[in-house]
Design brief:
- It holds the Pfam family AA_kinase.
- By secondary structure, the chain is of the alpha/beta class.
- It contains 15 helices and 23 strands.
- The chain folds into two domains: 287 residues, 3-Layer(aba) Sandwich (Carbamate kinase); 145 residues, Gcn5-related N-acetyltransferase (GNAT) (Aminopeptidase).
- Strands 5-10-2-1-13-15-16-14 form an eight-stranded mixed beta sheet, with helices on both faces. The protein has a seven-stranded mixed beta sheet with strand order 17-18-19-20-21-23-22.
- Helix 8 packs antiparallel against helix 9.
């Protein structure tokens, strides 16, 4: 019992920065109808209700593909596909309307449950649905009339924001109505992308079926820029990736102003919580190419680093480094580049024959010190240290001890340093020693 409590307390403490960061943000969540057909919907709804309770503004876009297919099979009908697009005739549309309605009611029922001793106990969460989506027909393409299959024409973002402001969770269905009153069958994922773009959502989360993206070595692929995702999928064979369609939609969303798109395995229990409230997440994050990027330093960066650290060397904050020394140590440095200029740097110096490393020369340009860049650099070095199997990080500082303590470092004695580093400790500077385990 004590171990479980300690684990819970530890998780809450580590997740609190993410809780603060996500409060008041708008997230769009897309999930297939499979969630309602395999018994996992209740857990998903509990997680979404928790997000709402933490102040996150949620738009949920559920699909209904299994439910539609079930009704089509019962009638002996089918949705025909031509050139990868479905053709929705009148009979199929009736099945779609029936299935989408049943999914909506099932979700509303799940959000209405409040049994004692359950995660929903005491919760009164309003679910708002309505005519938020205006559609238009795909029409006739290459001689094929796609009938009642449509695409999103407009999302009523003002109405959605009003419901979100009222504290409701907004539910969007993969059905749209045209200004003439016709109903159209839509792809739920396309509705989610259109909503995220229209709302300029902070995040779009796709809960997909099957396994996630992996590297060539078979390890989970944690992050891709839009350019990396485009290059990967444009150069691959047509059936090389089961998530090709989702990645394509993620690229579209990012180019439309959505800051982050997450691809998460739906079958993994608690995937949304794991993605949002842990540092490494559980899925693949796709982001636009930022103006800034972290990368290993090269010899070409020496001049930029020297210019960056010179003021701190002049006032005694840093020990002075010669160009020759910096060129020798450049492989230990990571830099943050903004439009071709080095705006921050830090070094990870491994101590030979030990499992320890020193974090040194962490500097952010004065014009960029209000954007958490120092923390981003430190987190990058910590990940590098963990990947290298290091067990201890330490830092020597005269003026920034409190900042490092805020990042999880704890004070230590000089005697705790590796012997090699103790030998070069400068008593005259009187630097504070702080240590931390990476990861």
């Amino acid at each position: 019992m004590t171990d479980r409590l300690n684990a819970l307390v530890d998780w809450f403490r580590h997740s609190s920065p993410f809780i603060h960061a996500h409060r008041g943000r708008t997230f769009v969540v897309s999930v297939g109808g499979e969630a309602l057909s395999d018994g996992t919907a209740a857990a998903l709804v509990h997680d979404l209700a928790l997000l709402n309770g933490l102040g996150i503004r949620l738009v949920l876009v559920p699909g209904a593909r299994p439910q539609v297919e079930e009704r089509l099979n019962a009638r002996g009908a089918a949705i025909r596909y031509v050139n990868g697009l479905r053709v929705t005739d009148a009979e199929a549309l009736g099945c779609v309307v029936d299935a989408v309605g049943s999914v909506r009611l099932a979700i509303e029922a799940l959000f209405s449950m409040g049994l004692a001793n359950s995660p929903m106990a005491g919760l009164r969460l309003q679910v708002a649905s309505g005519n938020f989506v205006t559609a238009r027909p795909l029409g006739v393409r290459d001689g094929v009339d796609y009938r009642q299959t449509g695409e999103v024409r407009r999302i009523d973002t003002a109405a959605i924001r009003q419901r979100l402001d009222d504290g409701a969770l907004v539910l969007l269905s993969p059905l749209g109505v045209s200004p003439t009153g016709e109903q159209f069958n839509l792809y739920a994922e396309d509705v989610a992308v259109a909503a995220a773009r229209g709302l300029q959502a902070d995040k779009l989360l796709f809960l997909h079926e099957g396994e996630g993206l992996v590297t060539a070595a078979g390890t989970p692929l944690g992050e891709l820029t839009v350019e990396e995702a485009r290059d990967r999928f444009e150069s691959a064979a047509g059936d090389a990736e089961p998530l090709r369609a989702q990645v394509t939609r993620a690229i579209t969303a990012c180019r439309g102003g959505v800051a982050r798109v997450h691809l998460l395995p739906r079958q993994r229990d608690g995937a949304i919580l794991g993605e949002l409230f842990t540092r490494d997440g559980v899925g693949t994050l796709i982001t636009p190419r930022a103006f800034e990027r972290l990368r290993p330093a090269s010899v070409e960066d020496v001049s930029g680093i020297l210019a960056l650290i010179a003021p701190l060397e002049d006032d005694g904050t840093l020990v002075r480094r010669t160009r020759e020394r910096l060129e020798t140590e450049i492989g230990d440095f990571t830099v943050m580049e903004r439009e071709g200029t080095v705006v921050a740097c830090a070094a990870l110096h491994r101590i030979e024959d030990t499992a320890a490393a020193e974090i040194a020369c962490l500097v952010v340009h004065p014009d960029y010190r209000d954007g958490h860049r120092g923390r981003q650099l430190l987190e990058r070095l910590e990940r590098d240290a963990a990947a290298a199997g290091l067990e201890s990080l330490f830092v020597l500082t005269t003026r920034t001890a409190h900042w490092f303590r805020e990042q999880g470092f704890v004070p230590a004695d000089v005697a705790s340093l590796p012997a090699e580093r103790q030998a070069f400790y400068n008593l005259a500077r009187g630097s504070k020693v702080l240590v931390k385990a990476p990861g």
